[in-house]
C-alpha cells in the first residue's frame, strides 16, 4: 500500500484491523529540520578562583540570549578585573557582540571612559546589524579598592554586605517616570502592552546597546556608580532580570549570606535554581564575585607598600 497521506492510512489500517508498520509511517511524514540556532543551549556552570557563574535557559525561551565576559587584567594591573553580563532580546546577536567588544573598548577607568566605551560599542553594532535586536549590560570593574559599576536596561548589580545590601545599578525601564519623560521629549511614546509599559508598545527597557530602529529613544548611556570596597562587603552579584522575576534583591542578599561558606559557582547555582523553582520563566545568568578575597589582596598590597591597610 502506498502511504501518500499517513493520517488517512492510519485510520484505514485501524478499520481493517491490520498490523501497523510504524517505521513506514514515520518515514512518510514530512517535517521541518530544526536549525542549529533553534536548539536549546546547555546550562553553564563556571568556577573561578574568586568568582562563579551559573546560566540556565528559561523554560519558555526559544534560545539562551544571555552572555557574559570576564577580563582578569586591565591596563597591566592584577587588581583591575572586569565582570559583565549581557541580556539580549530579539536574538543573541547584540549580547554576543557586546560581550566581545565592550570591555576592550574601555580606554580610561573613569565615568567618561566607560560611557564612551558603551557608546562606541553601540555605534559599531548598529552600523553592522541594523535589524538584529539589542542587549542590556551590567558591568563592574574592580579597580584596586573601588567598584566601578555601569549598567543599561534592567540587568542588576547588587553589593551584599554583612547586614545589608546596596543596588549599584539602575533599572532603565519604560515604567520609570524619568525615562518616560526623556523618551516623550525625544518624540517617542510609552504604551501599555499586555500589562507592561513599553517604548512604542514594543520594548520594556529604555536603554540598550543595539535596537537601531529605536535609537532615538533607546540610548546607550549607562548609569554609573563608584563604590569603595570595605571589610563589610561579602559579595557582588551581577544577574540578568530572569533572577529577579521571582526573587527580590533582599531575598538574593539573604541567600548569599546564608551560603557564605559555599563556592561562588555553588551560590550562583543555588540562586538560579531558587528563581526557577519560584516560577521564573526567563533566561537566568548569575555571577557571584567574593569581595573579601579582593579586600584581603588590597590590604596585603597596602601593607607591603605602606605597612598598614587602607582606612576604609
TrEMBL record:
<feature type="domain" description="PPM-type phosphatase">
    <location>
        <begin position="50"/>
        <end position="291"/>
    </location>
</feature>
<protein>
    <recommendedName>
        <fullName>PPM-type phosphatase domain-containing protein</fullName>
    </recommendedName>
</protein>
<dbReference type="GO" id="GO:0004722">
    <property type="term" value="F:protein serine/threonine phosphatase activity"/>
</dbReference>
<dbReference type="InterPro" id="IPR001932">
    <property type="entry name" value="PPM-type_phosphatase-like_dom"/>
</dbReference>
<keyword id="KW-0472">Membrane</keyword>
<dbReference type="InterPro" id="IPR036457">
    <property type="entry name" value="PPM-type-like_dom_sf"/>
</dbReference>
<dbReference type="Pfam" id="PF00481">
    <property type="entry name" value="PP2C"/>
</dbReference>
<dbReference type="InterPro" id="IPR015655">
    <property type="entry name" value="PP2C"/>
</dbReference>
<dbReference type="GO" id="GO:0016020">
    <property type="term" value="C:membrane"/>
</dbReference>
Amino acid at each position: 500500500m502506498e502511504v501518500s497521506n499517513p493520517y488517512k492510512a492510519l485510520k484505514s489500517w485501524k478499520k481493517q484491523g491490520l498490523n501497523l508498520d510504524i517505521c513506514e509511517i514515520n518515514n512518510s511524514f514530512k517535517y521541518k529540520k530544526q536549525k542549529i540556532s533553534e536548539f536549546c543551549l546547555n546550562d553553564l556552570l563556571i568556577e573561578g578562583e574568586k568568582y562563579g557563574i551559573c546560566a540556565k535557559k528559561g523554560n519558555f525561551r526559544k534560545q539562551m540570549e544571555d552572555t557574559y565576559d570576564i577580563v582578569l587584567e586591565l591596563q597591566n594591573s592584577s587588581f583591575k578585573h572586569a565582570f559583565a553580563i549581557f541580556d539580549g532580546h530579539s536574538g543573541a546577536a547584540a549580547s554576543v557582540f557586546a560581550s566581545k567588544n565592550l570591555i576592550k573598548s574601555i580606554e580610561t577607568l573613569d565615568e567618561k571612559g566607560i560611557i564612551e566605551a558603551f557608546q562606541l560599542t553601540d555605534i559599531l553594532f548598529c552600523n553592522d546589524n541594523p535589524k538584529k535586536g539589542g542587549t542590556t549590560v551590567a558591568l563592574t570593574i574592580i579597580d584596586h579598592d573601588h567598584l566601578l559599576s555601569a549598567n543599561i536596561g534592567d540587568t542588576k548589580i547588587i553589593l551584599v554586605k554583612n547586614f545589608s545590601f546596596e543596588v549599584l545599578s539602575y533599572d532603565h525601564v519604560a515604567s520609570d517616570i524619568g525615562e518616560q519623560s526623556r523618551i516623550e521629549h525625544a518624540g517617542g511614546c510609552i504604551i501599555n502592552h499586555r500589562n507592561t509599559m513599553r517604548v512604542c508598545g514594543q520594548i520594556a527597557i529604555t536603554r540598550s546597546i543595539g535596537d537601531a530602529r529605536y535609537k532615538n529613544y533607546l540610548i546607550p548611556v549607562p548609569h554609573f556608580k563608584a563604590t569603595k570596597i570595605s571589610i563589610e562587603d561579602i559579595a557582588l552579584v551581577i544577574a540578568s532580570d530572569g533572577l529577579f522575576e521571582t526573587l527580590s534583591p533582599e531575598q538574593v542578599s539573604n541567600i548569599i549570606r546564608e551560603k557564605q561558606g559555599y563556592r561562588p559557582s555553588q551560590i550562583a547555582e543555588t540562586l538560579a535554581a531558587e528563581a526557577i523553582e519560584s516560577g521564573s520563566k526567563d533566561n537566568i545568568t548569575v555571577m557571584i564575585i567574593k569581595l573579601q578575597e579582593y579586600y584581603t589582596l588590597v590590604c596585603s598590597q597596602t601593607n607591603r607598600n605602606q605597612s598598614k591597610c587602607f582606612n576604609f
